[in-house]
Amino acid sequence: MSGNHAASAGGRARAAALTPRRRRAIARKGYRAMVARHFGGDRQAQRHYLAQLGIYNYEVMCGSFLPGSPLRTNAVHPGDIQDWRARYYTPDLFAGAHRDVEFEHVVSAQHPFHCRHCALELGTTDGSRLFLAVLIEGQLLTMEFHETTRPHCPACGKVSPWIRQKSQAKTASCFSEVVVG
Fold first, then answer.
1. Angular region, 149: left φ>0, alpha ψ -120 to 50, beta rest
2. Is the whole model's pTM more than 0.85, yes or no?
3. Which of 10, 86, 107, 142 has the fewest CB atoms within 10 Å of its CB?
4. H-assigned helices in the chain
5. Could you report the per-residue pLDDT of 80-133, keeping only the tens digit for each?
6. Is there a contact between 80 and 150 (Cβ–Cβ < 8 Å)?
7. 103 close to 139: Cβ distance less than 8 angstroms
8. Residue 18 has what DSSP assignment?
């Protein structure tokens, strides 16, 4: 008998000697400690995280992520707990009834944004925003990006990362929009 097997058998024997009430009390204490450590004591956030993780795992078990699967995937992995908490507690500022507010736009000089590999012009940038012309279902749209993005070049197929400049990040508007061109 190995040491781990003997230790686990001993742990099960000690747990069996406890009353069911004491075992539930130990389980509640462990649950509260886990919620306090990983979710800052927010039980509702912990339930939301585990629900998203359960939905994702269910779809994985159904095989919807397998290549050639006819099943469509709706769930995504919620990610690391700390990253998920940052998204969970950050309100969606650009959704809801207040969309009628006009945000102040900073007008600045725009420069062409070129593919780093073949020098094809992909769009324009003012340092804090990237504007790309995109053809979607026969309609030309101008998309505006405010965060780092990695557009693919249609000519060479390689990625040309665009990184928002730190110096202009404080003065630029954070409003994102799609303009029909």
1. beta
2. no
3. 107
4. 3-17, 20-39, 43-62, 81-89, 166-169
5. 998 898 888 876 655 555 555 555 555 556 788 778 888 788 788 877 777 777
6. no
7. no
8. S
